[in-house]
Amino acid sequence: MEASCSLSFDAEQAAAFDRIAHLIEGAQEIVICAHTNPDGDALGTQLALERAIRARWPYKQVTGLLADDQPVPRIYRFLPGAEGLVPAVDYAGTPDLFISVDLSVAHRLEDGEAVLERSRHACIIDHHPCDDPFGEAWYIRPSAAAASVLVEEFIQHLGLPLTRDIALCLLCGIITDTGRFQYQNADAEALVAASLLVQAGADPSVVSLNVYQSFRLEFLHLKAAVMARVVTFAHGRIAYSYATAADLERTGASLDEADGLVDVVRSVAGSEVALFLKEIPGGKVRGNLRSKTGIDISGVARELGGGGHKAAAGFTVEGDVDEVLSITLPKLRALFPEGVAQQGGTTSFPRIDLS
Ligand code: 5GP
Ligand code: MN
């Protein structure tokens, strides 16, 4: 059955895409990079765009860069082309064009930032709110569910082939950034975009099998610990949990495996805001914040030096779990001024250690 839907966009978006295409046409050596600690949307967009550009301009040299000197997370290695991504730190070229996808702020490029600095031109396709994007051309639409939706529109606008491999990469981005179409960003456009990708040959069950049904036992044991110590406060409206460095060591789970654990926290009935912390090397803690209602948690992430969207944001700060909980939880509580003032509420923020 043919899908009877299509993606459409306005003249402003078409003009932005034309400016980006113009930069691509004028470049011989091109790199495509996404954010540090890449997720399915970051990897999906860069791999899809890399393939699309190669198909249209086979004589151009296109390299997909990884912001960090780390392997692609295990659950995303099924993406076609993932094995060809190069850590930015190992890339010695001087590109004519640096394309940033799923990212608009230079500091989250990590090692890619040095490549950006020596690139002649730069452009962005992204869906993160950004006041001050770098480069000469960009298309940034924070209301888009995933950068993959925007790259799909870019590919469609340029008449580039939407092959099965490209479609699979983009479908992975849309499925993961919408939490399998469960988050508030799962709008009609995301579903239309996904439908067209399935029509182009992408199989949603392949994404599910690799991303959601291929966990190592080590990870499941970590998840069990994180689940066991979920705490709520502010009358159940805020939920949090964490993984310490000791948890990771004890279970044998890897850091990147712990990435989706904020979903465990947000699953608590009645909770509106979810926080998950994990200790990372260098005496730091990485935090993931989520909002299930209209409450905007991105300000808290920004106050802590991070950023993101209203409903999904993150940050990295120095300290251990205890220290970061004591800084972060009062900020979250302050998001509920009336409720907490009227009804009282917990004054301490217990750390539950079941290990
Ligand atoms: P996550 O919690 O899944 O790492 O990130 C949630 C959202 O916030 C993503 O869209 C991610 O790109 C953004 N985000 C996470 N951490 C940071 C950060 O440190 N700085 C900025 N600007 N955005 C972030
Ligand atoms: Mn994204």
Describe the structure in your own words.
By secondary structure, the protein is of the alpha/beta class. The chain has 13 helices and twelve strands. The strands form two sheets. It has a six-stranded parallel β-sheet with strand order 3-2-1-4-5-6. Helix 2 (40-56) links the parallel strand 1 and strand 2. It is globular. The model is unreliable at 341-348 (pLDDT under 50). Bound molecules: guanosine-5'-monophosphate (5GP) and manganese (II) ion. Residues 41, 102, 127, 146-147, 177 line the site of manganese (II) ion.
What key attributes describe this structure?
single chain; 355 residues; alpha/beta; 6-stranded parallel sheet; 6-stranded mixed sheet; 13 helices; binds guanosine-5'-monophosphate; binds manganese (II) ion
Could you write a compact summary of the structure shown?
With 355 residues, this protein is an alpha/beta fold. It is built from 13 helices and twelve strands.
